[in-house]
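## retry 2 of 3
previous attempt timed out at serialization; input unchanged, resubmitting
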Amino acid sequence: MKKLWLTIVTTLLVASGCGSNEKKPAASAANGDRVTRGVSAADRSRCDFVGRNDRETVETAGPGSVTPNIRRVFALVGEGEDRHRVIVCREVDTNLDGVKDVVRTYTDKGEVATELADSNFDGIIDTWITFTNGRRAKVELDKNADGKPDEARYYMNGKLSRIQRDENHDGRPDVWEIYEDGHLRRMGVDLDHDGRVDRWNRDEILAREEAADENRKAEEEAKKAAAEKAAEAPPEPTSKRQRK
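## retry succeeded, writing output
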C-alpha cells in the first residue's frame, strides 16, 4: 500500500509540471551566460571587448533593421582631459538573422586594417581582406567551404593586379592571372602541380580589340582635326563662287 501511494504521488507531481521546472535552471543559466559574456553565443561576436574596461561599444540599427545589427567597438585611450576613444572594431549582421557575419578591425589611426566575412551565412569565414593605408590590398576567398583560402587577389593602387588560384586544393596555387589597368593580360597554368608555371596563355583577342580601339581613336582624331581646319579656312571670294 505504501509503494502504491508513492507511485500515485510521483505521478501527480510529474503531471502538475514539476518535470518542466527542471528546464528553468538551464534557461536561467543561459541568460546568466549572456550577462557574463556581454554577448549571446548566437551573436558570434569577433570583436574583443567583453570584460575590458578600456573598451566602449555602440549598437545601432542599419537600414531595414528594427533592432541593432551594427556594433562599433572603441578603445578608450589617454588620461583625464586627453582621454578619447578610437574605433578598433566594427561588426555587422548583414542578413539580419541575429548573427554577425562581417567584422572589420582598424589601426591606431582609425584606418581599416582587415575585414572578415561569412558571405554565404553558413557560420564559416570565407573571405579575408587586408588593407594598406586604408585601401584594399589583398582579398582571399574560400571557394570549397573548408575554412581555408584557395584564391588570392592582389591590388595595387586600388586596381586588381594579380590573381592566384589553388584549383586542386593542395595548398599551393596552380593558376596565375596577371592584370593591367583592370584587363587580363595573361594567364599561367601549373599542369604538373610542382609550383611553377608550365604554360602562359595570352589574351590575343583583348590585344586585337585594344588595337582596334586605338585605330578608331586615331581616325576620330583625324576627322576632328580636318573639321577644325575646314572651319578655320577663309571663305572663297563671291565672284569665284559665281563663276562656278
